[in-house]
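ESCALATION

Customer reports they have been waiting on this structure for their group meeting. Please prioritize. Original submission:
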Amino acid sequence: MTDTVVVAHELSRSFGKFVAVDRVSFEVGRGEIFGFLGSNGAGKTTTIRMLCGLLAPTSGRGEVLGLDVGRQPAAIKRRIGYMSQRFSLYTDLTVDENLRFWGGAYGLGGQRLAARADWAVQAADLAQRRRTLVRELPGGFRQRLALGCALLHEPPIVFLDEPTGGVDPEARRRFWDLIDALAAAGTTVFVTTHYMDEAERCHRVALMHAGRLLALDSVPSLKRLFAPGTVVEVRCSRAPAALQILEAEPAVREAALFGTVLHVVLAEADGASVVQNRLRSAGFEDVSITPIEPSLEDVFIHVIAGEAVAGDQWSVSRGQLRTVAGDQWSVAGGPAQPPSGNPSDHRAPTTDHRAGGRGR
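Update from on-call: job pushed to the front of the queue and completed.
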């Protein structure tokens, strides 16, 4: 890949016997929006913290902007922007005071700081709120301000760890408009998310589960993992009961519940009639089957079903892939959390969200 700015090679991190990130390898190019997609606890935050120089790898190698994450973490922190899951600006300071504080932490001053602060408030649509205390801002404005603070020093790459959690859909859309503009101007954006619509806006997406990287490609290429015509939507009454029947049907490769409907992956493109006849013979009279374009949820379930994770980590079988709830994933049948005594979300204790910033 030309103009590569991030390299991970067999990057791993363990907490005691628990493997949070298991030998992940990938590269990210300049100006790319690179999405890390996975359910909570997949290892996304641990990976991003290693790349930001906040957490040392147990093994493997990582480079950001040509700097080694294990040997040069301080240099990495000075050159990147980082926005963590936890909102970490100072809520008892105003918008302007936060901008001046973080600008000073990044070594900005005078006219350059003033110019960059003006850019940040314009980008975040906060020009009329510069003297407002951050705690009084709506969630979407807070997130945009945090992004502006992370970009004050014009870093060539910014790491965003689930940056839109807890904000409304319109605020999420506006936030992603900023991300698109950054990438168009040449900034690399490395973003973790569990929202499907956000992943669709990434240039490439890495699918993470139980610490392992299961697939990596553009969204259209990931959807082509399925043969044409093999993904269908099944509508019927008593969908959970229908799911149990289809899980034992040889013509069905995979099946999952999406709200009140089923998404079914057929073994062959002409298997829809087999599914319909099977359900009708079981007493389902209102069966409707429609071919659909695979969603990223379908892709995610598909790659998990093909990856049996042994040992202390999650083991997912066809019968365990039951529910996709709302915008997030729920995988039934596996433990809700990693083994007792290990970090519940695959990450080390949190420090301040700014690279080079002080702990809070």
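Sent to customer with the following note: The chain has a mean pLDDT of 83.
Escalation resolved.
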